[in-house]
Amino acid sequence: MATTPITPSADSKAAPYFPEQVTGMYVLARALKNVGIENVYGLVGIPVTEAAYLIQGQGIRFVGFRHEQQAGMAAATEGFLTKKPGVLMTVSSLGFLNGLTATANATVNCYPMIQISGASDPTMVDMNVGTYEQLDQFNTAKPLVKAAFRCSKAEDIPAAVNRAYRAAVSGRPGGVYIDMTTPALGQVMNREDAEKLFYTPVDLYTPTAPSPEAVDRAVEIITSAKRPAILFGKGAAYAQADDKIKTLVEKYNIPYLPMSMAKGLMPDDGPLSALSCRSTIMEKADVVIVMGARLNWMLSFGKGKWNPDIKFVQLDVEPQEIDVNRPIAAPVIGDLGLSLDAILAGMEGKTMSTDAAWLPALQAETKAKGVKFAARIDDAKSAMPMTHWTALGAIKPILAANPDVILVNEGANTLDDTRDAISMSLPRHRVDCATWAIMGMGMGSVIGAAVATGKSVVAIEGDSAFGFSGMDFSTACRFNLPVTVVIFNNGGIYNGIGVPMDKTSDPAPTTLDIHARYDKLGDAFGAQTYYVQTPDELSKALTESIASKKPCLIDVQLAADSGKESGHIGYLNPAPLQQITV
Predict the structure, then answer these.
(1) Greatest Cα pair distance in the chain
(2) CA-closest candidate to residue 230, choices 256, 202, 204, 191
């Protein structure tokens, strides 16, 4: 803490001068403020509690959580939505490890994020003397993050924060770790010396333009395509090059297929949307522009059903993403906005070679599948107890009427069915479990989205998924955030009808509790809560919740047999559940 300086008295000629002093914790708070950080998410304890107070003293919002993993998910979500690093602060040892899950996830998913964790004196860790919460955090984190820094003294802190910010946002974004050791945090120094450490970094993010040769090659392939399509990934949504993407799509009539977190980049229901035609795009397209996406397991690794003669044009900021799983005919490496500028300039005055029947065929397929999908939801309206589709039929028109609500979604069937049922019309308004398909990001992402944007947030959660992070609904209540959490309770993982092996009287591994009353958890924290059993009750509850702009929790009672084993990853599922024998 800063102390009041003692000045010489008027009648003293040689009274000593005691300069104002500060600690490394103050230096950290000032360094975060200096680089423009507005929010820090975390959970305090030894040795970072006082640092959190000093961060608040700089006018930075400190959002205190119940679990470090959820605080990290909030920081990562802020990074995705704003292009600025979300910041996580944790204690040492297990607190650090809890947070590292989120930071590693941010790195894989290319979200800019900085984790700052209090750490034991590394000289004691190196000698394995058994100091408090002893763990070599720096070397534990290093393989899992984009960059890592260790602050051994207070003088290191401003440079570490600036360098971490630059590393998090530059090139391919990712998670960065700062090992904030107790000697650095506790060090006392004169304020005037501390102030000399701070500087304003220049060009924290410098966009890189693609080479002209790469652009020319891409333009030639795109304009010669007979059956073109664009595949949007969350990297395209992150880039915030929305107007340029819109121009490319609409000026050249190129159908588009968004991945989950790119939904809304162009409207899901737009006339050029091929969202319902994924298999057709894979089988028949001859040129696909892969924009901020990976040809990973979610896209059959670019093989399988894909046209063997297809040519991929891949726009990415990271060269190492090229030729992964499938040769890329035209890699365009650089900032997405600059790459699109160059491609649009190169296409100016050129005409596409698209087959006249290509787009009408996709539109006809979309229309036919839309009719079938509407019938599926309509058929589920009368199901009692409700199924996933009954509940989603009630939710769908309400979210359509509130397009600026950010949707957070996780679960098994709850994730898959919501992704299919709920159309998005605005970019960066859907957040889910992304590349690693992890459960347990829900409440952290809800809070991060609400804090970072100020917008209303609706989370649609499976009962199993909610269990990973449900206690942090209390954080949303404490900060009075405009969030509504909708829990689909079918009593289990996939469903609530799992049958245990005959050698035990215990519940089946997939069974939870069909009679659980999650609304009571909301009551405990002062939220507005609802327990609903019919579509009309759900419609009323969700409408009221969004309008209230306050923390609300809706417990949706589903049938125990609603849902099935999810994932559709055949090479990872050697046997269906019902075929397992011992």
Answers:
(1) 96
(2) 256
Cα(314)–Cα(202) distance, rounded to whole angstroms?
30
**Looking at the structure, do residues 272 and 419 belong to the same domain, yes or no?**
no
How far out from the chain centre does Cα 500 lie? 35
Counting every residue, how long is the chain?
582
Phi-psi region of 68 (alpha: psi -120 to 50; beta: other; left: phi over 0): alpha
Per-residue pLDDT, 568: 56
Q: What is the pLDDT of residues 78-102, one digit of tens each?
A: 999 999 999 999 999 999 999 999 9
Q: Is 13 helix (H, G, I), strand (E, B) or coil?
A: coil
CA gap 317, 326 in Å, rounded: 18
User: For residue 53, with 0-12 CB atoms within 10 Å meaning exposed, 13-18 middle and 19 or more buried, which class applies?
Assistant: middle
Compute how many other C-beta atoms are within 10 angstroms of the C-beta atom of residue 283: 13
Reported as a single tens digit per residue, the pLDDT across 408-432 is 999 999 999 999 999 999 999 999 9
In the chain, the amino acid numbered 68 is: E
Q: Which domain holds residue 297?
A: 212-356
pTM: 0.93
The continuous run of DSSP H or E covering 139 comes out as helix 137-141
Closest by CA position to 22, among listed 57, 60, 59, 63: 57
Query: How far, in Å, CA of 376 to CA of 258, rounded?
Result: 22
Structure tokens at 355: 């087959």
SS3 helix, strand, coil % of the chain, rounded to 5? 45, 15, 40
- Comparing CA positions, the residue from 438, 460, 483 lying closest to residue 558 is 460
**Where among 356, 391, 426 does a domain terminate?**
356
3-class secondary structure, 390: helix
* Whether residue 284 sits in one domain with residue 137: no
DSSP string, 113-136: EEEEEEE--HHHHHTT---TT---
